[in-house]
Amino acid sequence: MLKYRKIGQILVENGVLTQEQLEPGLMEQHKKIGQILAEKGVLSKEHIDTALLIQKKETTRFKRSMIFLVSVFLFCLGLFLFDLYQQNIVIQEAKIITAADQNLLPIKITNVFPKDTSKIGTWIKWKNSKINTQLLVKWHYITDDVPIYDYILNIPKREGIANVALSLPEGKSLPSGSYKVDILSGKKRLFKTLTFKVE
Predict the structure, then answer these.
(1) CA atoms within 13 A on the CB side of 114
(2) Is residue 141 packed enough to be buried (19+ CB in 10 Å), middle (13-18) or exposed (0-12)?
(3) Which of 87, 109, 187, 190 is the most buried (most CB within 10 A)?
(4) How confident is the model over 19-44, as pLDDT tens digits?
(5) What's the pLDDT at 176?
(6) What is the pLDDT of residues 131-158, one digit of tens each?
(7) For residue 148, how many other CB atoms are within 10 A of its CB?
(8) How many CA atoms lie within 13 A of 55 on its CB side?
């Protein structure tokens, strides 16, 4: 660990001076310690110059280390704040729907679907988004605890609506039981959970 050492400490640790020789100088703190000890004949100018050079190098290293640590801290803080800003999106509404019209507005909102259902939509309305923020829409079959489908929605504008559909191949339908749809941020923060049933 780097630390700042006073000139007296450097002189004692380098064996130029004893602690007993340093003490009288510490009593006269209105002067620089090197000047006091030189006046008393305890140190030569060479000793003082060498110790000052060591102190200057250590101080420079200490300052550089502190600048590096502060820079790393500010960089990490910037990443954290950027990530926080990315997550300011607000999901105003989310609904399970049968279909959407040409303007992406829900045609019919419901939580119960018949046995032969092969397509279900999730309608989402958001605001305060950063462009290209990602939402993760996860479909899950609760009855047998089976993940069905994950869809990543790239948000194209600050506010708007979107419809994410779960469509099975022709001739296939969803099995009876309970389902859920989780809407999460790209960082897996949960915004909303919607549930529905197929009966």
Answers:
(1) 1
(2) middle
(3) 87
(4) 888 776 665 555 677 777 777 777 78
(5) 95
(6) 888 899 999 999 999 999 999 999 989 8
(7) 14
(8) 15
C-alpha distances (whole Å) from 25 to each of 8, 38, 72 are 9, 10, 40
Asked if 91 contacts 192 with a C-beta cutoff of 8 angstroms, the reply is: yes
Task: Give 58-67 pLDDT, tens digit per residue.
Answer: 888 888 888 9
Tell me the chain's radius of gyration from C-alpha atoms.
35
Joined tokens for residue 29: 């703190």
DSSP line for the chain: ------HHHHHHHTTSS-HHHHHHHHH-TTS-HHHHHHHTTSS-HHHHHHHHHHHHHHHHHHHHHHHHHHHHHHHHHHHHHHHHHHTT-EEEEEEEES-B-TTS-BS-B-SEE-TT--EEEEEEEEESPPTT-EEEEEEEETTTTEEEEEEEEE--SSSEEEEEEEEPPTT--PPSEEEEEEEEETT--EEEEEEEEE-
Check residue 186 and give its pLDDT. 74
For 90-198, CATH gives: 2.60.40.2550
Residue ranges per structural domain of the chain: 7-86, 90-198
